From TrEMBL:
GO terms for cellular component: cytoplasmic exosome (RNase complex); nuclear exosome (RNase complex); nucleolus; nucleoplasm. Residues 470-800 form the RNB domain. Belongs to the RNR ribonuclease family. Residues 942-951 have a biased composition (Polar residues). Residues 940-963 are annotated as: Disordered. This is Exosome complex exonuclease RRP44. The gene is DIS3. The lineage of its organism: Eukaryota, Metazoa, Chordata, Craniata, Vertebrata. It comes from Pipra filicauda (Wire-tailed manakin). It is found in: Cytoplasm; Nucleus, Nucleolus; Nucleus, Nucleoplasm. Keywords: Acetylation, Cytoplasm, Endonuclease, Exonuclease, Exosome, Hydrolase, Magnesium, Manganese, Nuclease, Nucleus, Phosphoprotein, RNA-binding, rRNA processing.
Length: 963
C-alpha cells in the first residue's frame, strides 16, 4: 500500500520547507515473537526473531505472567543503563522510538542497536511506521511528539491483540513502559497495561540492585527541584542562540581545572575568536557546567576580570551543602589575584550541549548510618562529585565503580546520578587497567560477530587472482626491524645495488586495505577505534588479531600482501625515480633493533640481509643529515620500558629506552615513504587527500625554554624551526653534558599537537617538526586507520583499486580526521596513565629510593623534577597542610625559586626521595621529597599531593612533537 508523509524541515539557509514523500505500507512485517505462526519469518541479522517463545528474565510482582516490554523514547534515552542489564530481556523497540532516539542521542542509539544485535538480550526492532495496521497519520493540530506517543500506543494495542491469537495456555502480554505521566494516563484509558520504569524495576523483587541503576528524573523527564536555590537559572537554548548570534554571549568548550575545582576555562569556538580563552571562577559562575560541555558564557566587566589561579583547591568536604565553606574558598581566590596577569573572565549562562559520559571512580560512603544517599568521587579530578542513591554502599566501598549523571538541579551542590557498574577492587591491576581505558574512551570490547564475519576464512592463502594484479617481489632480500616482541609488523625494507650502479630501496607496508573493505562492519569498527593502543603489558588492537598478528603482519618466511614504495637513488641518497605498486613479498628476517644493529656492526657477517641493512643505514644517515640541515627538529622525551615478572606480570625493573642507529634507520625511511605518498595523493586528489600537519608553536610557547637557556648563558633562537634546531645543536656545556638533553626535553613541551586534516579544507600543510612542506601517514595501517584511508587513495591514484563516494567527500573526510585526532590523543593519554600506574606498582615493591634528578620547571611553591634513571617526572612541593610554610621567593624571569636561603634554578641537579603515597586509594601518587640540597640543614617535606605524572604541568607545556 502506498501513502505519503508530509513534514516540514529547516534548510541550511534557515528557510522552512514542506516535504512530501512516498510512504510504503506492508502487511508482511513480522511481530518478532518466536511463538507466532501467523507472521512470515523475519529476515536479516538485526531483525531475526528476537522475542522468546516463553519470555525469560526476572519475574515481576506487578505482571507475573509472560510478557514483553515496550518502552517509549524518553525511557530509552534516560534509562538505557537499566535496559542494558542482563536481567532485562524481550524488549520491543519500535521504529518510531528508534528514529527519535537516533535524532536526539547518537551514543544511546548505538547502545540500543548493539542490544538489538545481541541474541542473548532478545530485543526486537519492529518497523511500525511501515506496518499497515500500526502506521498512523498526524492529525490536524497534533504535535509531532503527540503523534509519536499515539503511534506507540497504537503499536502496543496491536501487539496485544496480535499475541492473543497465539495458541498457548498462557497468553503473552505487552507491558508499556513510560515515565511520561500524560502518556501513561492515556495508555491506561485505552486499556493498555502501563508502568513507569521505577514501578516495573521495583517489582523485580529478586533483583533489588537494579533500583540503583535508575536515572534520577521525574515522570516528566525533568530534574526535580525544591529547596534553597544555589545556582542561577540556565537561559533557554533558543535565547542563547540569539545571544550568540548578536554577540552578547560566546560559545565554547568548558574545560575544568584539575588543580582548582572552583576554576575553569572556556575555549571559544569560531575562526574570529580562535584560541580565545575565557576564565570562569566561583561556584555560581561555573553554574553546573561539566568538563567538555559546550556552554554559553557572558563576559564580565573588565574590573571583574581575574588571573589564572596559582592556588590548589581540591573538593574534599564531606558536607555537600556547605556553601559557606565554598564562599570562603572563593575569597582565597580573590586575594590571590596577580593584577599583571588579568585575563578575560566570564560566567556560564547556559548549556548548549551536554557531553556527559559514564564516569569511573569510588563511592565516598555517607557517615550517616543506614543512609542511601552517598557521594561518588570520580577518578578524573575535573569532574564534580556526583550524588547517587544506592542500597549497596557496604559492598561498593573500596571498589571502582561506574556512575552516570542524570541531571543537575539548581538546588543541589552536586549533580544527581545513578550507579551503573562495579568494575572491581581499587588497586587491582585488571580493574585499574579497565578504569584507564574507560576514562580515556578507548574502545576495547571484544570484536562482535558481525565484525569477525568479514575476516578471511582460514586457512587463507594468496590466490592466482591476487597474483594477477600484483608485482611479485618475493625474490628481494626484504627484512623487518622492530621492537622486541612485536607481532603486528607493519613495515619491511630492502636495499640493493642495481645494474646501472644506482641503489634501489623499498619500503613495503602491510596491505591491510585488501582485507578491510569500505563500509562493512569491520571497516566501521576500525574507524571507530582509530588506532591501536599500547599499554605497558597489553595492546588494544584496532583490527582483529587474525589480521594484526597474522595475515597482515609481515612475518618472516611467509608470503604476504604488501603496498610497496620503491625509489631509485644515487649514492648521495638523492631520489631519481619513485614508484608505488601493490606487491607480494616474503620477508627473509624479522629482526629486533638490537639484532639489526649487531649485524651492521659485525666484522664477520656479510650475508645479503646484513649487506642490505648496511646500505639502508648508510643512506639513512645522509637523509637525516639533509633533514636536519633543512630545519627538522631532533627533540627528546624520556621514555621508559618495564621488565615484567613472567608469572605475576608485575614490573620488576624500570629503565629508560635505549635508542640505536637502527631506530633512526627505520624512522628515516618511514618518513621518506610518508612524504612521497603524501605528494602523490595530493597531486592526484588535491581536494580530498588525507594529510598530517604540525603547526608552528606561537612565540609565547617558547618563553620558558628561552628563559631557562638564558639562565645557563645560552641563547635559543625561535624565529624558525631551522633557527631553533641550530641553536639547540650549539647549546652544549662541556661540564654539563646532560644539559642539551634537558633543553630538548623542554623544547618538546613547547610544541603543538600534530593533526590529521583534509587537504581541501585547509591551506596550511606544513609539518613544523619535520621541516616538510607535506606529510601523511602511510606506513602503519595495522595500527592506524588514517593509513588505511591513505592506502585507498594511493591505490586509486595508481589504478590498483576503485573509489567510493565517502573517499572523495571532503566534508566526511574532515569529520573522520576529527575522530582520528581524538582517538590518537586519547590513546596517548591512556598510554601515559598505564606508565604512571605501573610506575606506582614498581615503587610499591621497591620502597623508599633516593635518586639524582634535574629541575625542569620552578613554580611559586614547588619544583618539577626529572629523574633520568627512571624517565620519571614529579613535583616537589614546599608547602604541607597543617605545617608552617617556609619562606618562598619565586623569580619568573631567571627562572628560580628561593626556599628560605637556598635558591633553586631550572636545570639544577638535586637529589630526591621517592616513595609511593597510597593514603588516598583512588589517587595514589609518587611522593617526592628534596634530599639535597638541604634547606636550613634538614630535608624539606613534600606535600602528599605530589604527582609523578604530567598532570601538574599546564596543558600548553605538555605538548609533544608528533609525527
Amino acid at each position: 500500500m502506498l501513502t505519503s508523509r508530509t513534514f516540514v524541515k529547516r534548510t541550511r539557509a534557515g528557510a522552512v520547507v514542506k516535504v512530501v514523500r512516498e510512504h510504503y505500507l506492508r502487511e508482511d512485517i513480522a511481530c518478532g515473537a518466536a511463538a507466532c505462526r501467523l507472521c512470515p519469518p523475519a529476515t536479516g541479522t538485526a531483525n531475526a526473531p528476537g522475542l522468546e517463545a516463553r519470555p525469560s528474565g526476572a519475574s515481576s510482582s506487578l505482571c507475573p505472567g509472560p510478557h514483553f516490554l515496550l518502552p517509549d523514547t524518553n525511557l530509552l534515552l534516560h534509562q538505557i543503563d537499566v535496559l542494558e542489564d542482563p536481567v532485562i530481556k524481550n524488549v520491543i523497540v519500535l521504529q518510531t522510538v528508534l528514529q527519535e532516539v537516533r535524532n536526539r542521542s547518537a551514543p544511546v542509539y548505538k547502545r540500543i542497536r548493539d542490544m538489538i544485535q545481541n541474541p542473548e538480550k532478545h530485543f526486537y526492532s519492529f518497523t511500525n511506521e511501515h506496518h499497515r495496521e500500526t502506521y498512523i497519520e498526524q492529525k490536524r493540530g497534533e504535535t509531532s511528539n503527540d503523534r509519536n506517543d499515539r503511534a506507540i500506543r497504537v503499536a502496543v494495542n496491536w501487539y496485544n491483540e496480535h499475541l492473543k491469537k497465539i495458541e498457548d495456555e498462557e497468553k503473552i502480554q505487552v507491558i508499556f513502559l513510560t515515565n511520561d505521566r500524560t502518556n501513561k494516563e492515556k495508555a491506561l484509558e485505552e486499556g493498555i497495561t502501563a508502568y513507569t520504569c521505577e514501578e516495573y524495576i521495583k517489582s523485580l523483587t529478586a533483583n533489588p540492585e537494579l533500583v540503583d541503576r535508575l536515572a534520577c528524573v521525574s515522570d516528566e523527564g525533568k530534574e526535580i527541584e525544591s529547596g534553597k536555590i544555589i545556582f542561577p537559572e540556565h537561559i533557554p537554548l533558543s535565547k542563547l542562540q540569539q545571544g550568540i548570534k548578536s554577540g552578547i554571549y560566546l560559545q565554547g568548550t568548558y574545560r575544568a581545572s584539575r588543580e582548582n575545582y572552583l576554576e575553569a576555562t572556556v575555549w571559544v569556538h569560531g575562526d574570529a575568536e580562535e584560541n580565545r580563552e575565557i576564565i570562569v571562577q566561583g561556584l555560581k559562575h561555573l553554574n553546573r557546567a561539566v568538563h567538555e560541555d559546550i556552554v554559553a558564557v557572558e563576559l564580565l566587566a573588565k574590573n571583574e576580570w581575574v588571573a589564572p589561579s596559582s592556588v590548589v583547591l581540591q573538593d574534599d568536604g564531606q558536607n555537600e551543602d556547605d556553601i559557606e565553606n565554598e564562599e570562603e574558598k572563593e575569597n582565597i581566590l580573590k586575594t590571590a589575584v596577580n593584577k599583571d596577569m588579568l585575563r578575560p573572565t566570564g560566567k556560564v549562562v547556559g548549556i548548549i550541549k551536554r557531553n556527559w559520559r559514564p564516569y569511573c571512580g569510588m563511592l565516598s560512603k555517607s557517615q550517616i548510618k543506614e543512609a542511601r544517599r552517598h557521594l561518588f568521587t570520580p577518578a578524573d579530578r575535573r569532574i564534580p562529585r556526583i550524588r547517587i542513591e544506592t542500597r549497596q554502599a557496604e559492598t561498593l566501598e573500596g571498589q571502582r565503580i561506574i556512575v552516570a549523571i542524570d541531571g543537575w538541579p539548581r538546588n543541589s551542590r552536586y549533580p544527581n546520578g545513578h550507579f551503573v557498574k562495579n568494575l572491581g577492587s581499587a588497586g587491582d591491576k585488571e580493574t585499574e587497567t579497565e578504569v584507564l581505558l574507560l576514562e580515556h574512551d578507548v574502545p576495547h570490547q571484544a570484536f562482535s560477530q558481525a565484525v569477525l564475519s568479514f575476516l578471511p576464512k582460514m586457512p587463507w592463502s594468496i590466490t592466482e587472482e591476487d597474483m594477477k594484479h600484483r608485482e611479485d617481489l618475493r625474490h628481494l632480500n626484504v627484512c623487518s626491524v622492530d621492537p622486541p616482541g612485536c607481532t603486528d609488523i607493519d613495515d619491511a625494507l630492502h636495499c640493493r645495488e642495481i645494474e646501472n650502479g644506482n641503489i634501489e630501496v623499498g619500503v613495503h607496508i602491510a596491505d591491510v586495505s585488501h582485507f578491510i573493505r569500505p563500509g562493512n562492519a569491520l571497516d566501521e569498527e576500525s574507524v571507530k577505534r582509530g588506532t591501536t593502543v599500547y599499554l605497558c603489558e597489553k595492546r588494544i588492537d584496532m583490527v582483529p588479531e587474525l589480521l594484526s598478528s597474522n595475515l597482515c603482519s609481515l612475518r618472516s618466511n611467509v608470503d604476504r600482501l604488501a603496498f610497496s614504495c620503491i625509489w631509485e637513488m644515487n649514492h648521495k641518497a638523492e631520489i631519481l625515480k619513485t614508484r608505488f605498486t601493490k606487491s607480494i613479498i616474503n620477508s627473509k628476517a624479522s629482526l629486533t633493533y638490537a639484532e639489526a644493529q649487531m649485524r651492521i656492526d659485525s666484522a664477520t657477517m656479510n650475508d645479503d640481509i646484513t649487506t642490505s641493512l648496511r646500505g639502508l643505514n648508510k643512506l639513512a644517515k645522509i637523509l637525516k643529515k639533509k633533514r636536519i640541515e633543512n630545519g627538522a627538529l631532533t627533540l627528546s622525551s624520556p621514555e621508559v620500558r618495564f621488565h615484567m615478572d613472567s608469572e605475576t606480570h608485575d614490573p620488576i625493573d624500570l629503565q629508560t629506552k635505549e635508542l640505536k642507529e637502527t631506530n633512526s634507520m627505520v624512522e628515516e625511511f618511514m618518513l621518506l615513504a610518508n612524504i612521497s605518498v603524501a605528494q602523490k595523493i595530493y597531486d592526484e586528489f588535491p581536494e580530498f587527500a588525507l594529510l598530517r600537519k604540525h603547526p608552528a608553536p606561537p612565540p609565547s610557547n617558547y618563553d620558558i625554554l628561552v628563559k631557562a637557556a638564558k639562565s645557563k648563558n645560552l641563547e635559543i633562537k625561535t624565529d624558525s624551526a631551522k633557527a631553533l634546531a641550530e641553536s639547540l645543536d650549539k647549546a652544549e656545556s662541556p661540564t654539563f653534558p646532560y644539559l642539551n638533553t634537558l633543553l630538548r626535553i623542554l623544547t618538546t613541551r613547547c610544541m603543538m599537537q600534530a593533526v590529521y586534516f583534509c587537504s581541501g579544507m585547509d591551506n596550511d600543510f606544513h609539518h613544523y617538526g619535520l621541516a616538510s612542506p607535506i606529510y601523511t601517514h602511510f606506513t602503519s595501517p595495522i595500527r592506524r586507520y588514517a593509513d588505511i584511508i591513505v592506502h585507498r587513495l594511493l591505490a586509486v591514484a595508481i589504478g590498483a583499486d576503485s573509489t567510493y563516494p565517502e573517499l572523495t567527500d571532503k566534508h566526511k573526510l574532515a569529520d573522520m580526521c576529527k575522530n582520528l585526532n581524538y582517538r590518537h590523543k586519547m590513546a596517548q593519554y591512556a598510554q601515559r596513565a598505564s606508565v604512571a600506574f605501573h610506575t606506582q606498582l614498581f615503587f610499591k615493591t621497591k620502597g623508599v629510593v633516593n635518586e639524582d634528578a634535574y629541575i625542569l620547571f620552578v613554580r611559586k611553591n614547588a619544583i618539577v623534577v626529572l629523574i633520568p634513571k627512571y624517565g620519571l617526572e614529579g613535583t616537589v612541593f614546599f608547602e604541607e597542610k597543617d605545617k608552617p610554610t617556609p619562606k618562598l621567593d619565586y623569580n619568573n624571569e631567571v627562572p628560580s625559586l628561593t626556599v628560605e636561603d637556598t635558591t633553586l634554578h631550572v636545570f639544577d641537579k638535586v637529589k630526591v626521595n621517592i616513595t609511593l603515597d597510597d593514603s588516598n586509594i583512588q589517587h595514589q601518587k609518587m611522593r617526592m621529597v628534596l634530599v639535597e640540597p638541604k634547606i636550613l640543614g634538614k630535608d624539606v617535606s613534600a606535600n602528599p599531593s605530589t604527582e609523578a605524572s604530567s598532570e601538574n604541568e599546564p596543558e600548553k607545556k605538555k605538548k609533544k612533537l608528533q609525527k
